[in-house]
Design goal:
It contains 3 helices and 6 strands; from the N terminus they run βαβααββββ. The two termini are 25 Å apart. A hairpin with a 2-residue loop joins strand 3 and strand 4 (103-106). A 4-stranded mixed β-sheet has the order 2-1-3-4, sandwiched between helices. A two-stranded antiparallel sheet has the order 5-6. It is of the alpha+beta class. The protein has one domain (6-134): Glutaredoxin (3-Layer(aba) Sandwich).
């Protein structure tokens, strides 16, 4: 299936790897953007967050980042200040963001990506930890 899909990926992240594998299981080879090496522009980041229906604060990653040291838990910080921090330290951008013609999702958990992919999955799919997400017919297990 030809579909323009972008994943803002971190290969060191299991959730990101699972999401990428689910996209490929749908028969789609996405554009993989390693956002730590090639961060999105401010405009792209703002657009992705809005399209995913999130607030800027909901799109920030706390675990394994300088979140606490930078004082980003301060509720007085504006969205612009939070975006500045995310652009200066891309590790603060939660992952993986996936953009398709069917929508944008922050795919945490990874199976949220299924909401914005066509129903073209090829057989069963299990995450790295063994959790089965799709059955033998490629249908989502609820």
């Amino acid at each position: 299936m030809i579909m323009d899909v972008k994943i803002y990926h971190n290969p060191a992240c299991g959730t990101s790897r699972n999401t990428l594998a689910m996209i490929r299981n749908a028969g789609i080879e996405p554009t993989v953007i390693e956002y730590l090496k090639t961060p999105p522009s401010r405009q792209e980041l703002v657009h992705m967050i809005a399209d995913a229906g999130l607030t800027v604060r909901e799109a920030i990653r706390e675990k394994g980042t300088p979140y606490a040291e930078l004082g980003l838990d301060n509720p007085a910080l504006t969205d612009d200040q939070l975006l500045d921090a995310m652009l200066e330290h891309p590790i603060l951008i939660n992952r993986p963001f996936v953009v398709t013609p069917l929508g944008t999702r922050l795919s945490r958990p990874s199976e949220l990506v299924l909401d914005i992919l066509p129903d073209t999955h090829k057989g069963p799919f299990s995450k790295e930890d063994g959790e089965q997400v799709l059955d033998s017919e490629g249908k989502r297990i609820v």
